[in-house]
Amino acid sequence: GQMRAMLPGWYFFFGGSIDQDDRDGEEGGMGKNEGSMKFVYTMTIIMFLGLTVFGFRSMYAGKDRMGVIAALLIFGTFSLMNLLTTVQGT
After folding, report:
1. Is the Cβ–Cβ distance between 57 and 50 less than 8 Å?
2. How far apart are CA 36 and CA 18, in angstroms?
3. pTM, full prediction
4. Close Cβ partners of 3 (under 8 Å, ≥ 6 residues apart)
């Protein structure tokens, strides 16, 4: 309505919305970032499977473990950030 005319165009381009828009979406039962959450969950599972295969192959070959440790640290950080942003709902 009237509020939309006062806000700049880039506000909506970068995902800004008015409270009324949020209420309409919640009443409809649709999450505004449901597709992005599915993508994040899918990528997390793919990364976990890839890391598992990489770890087993590295350990079986008896290679240096620093690559596996670094990959585990990166995956752990990614999972923590994933958890924090999911809880915040952003």
Report:
1. no
2. 21
3. 0.54
4. 18
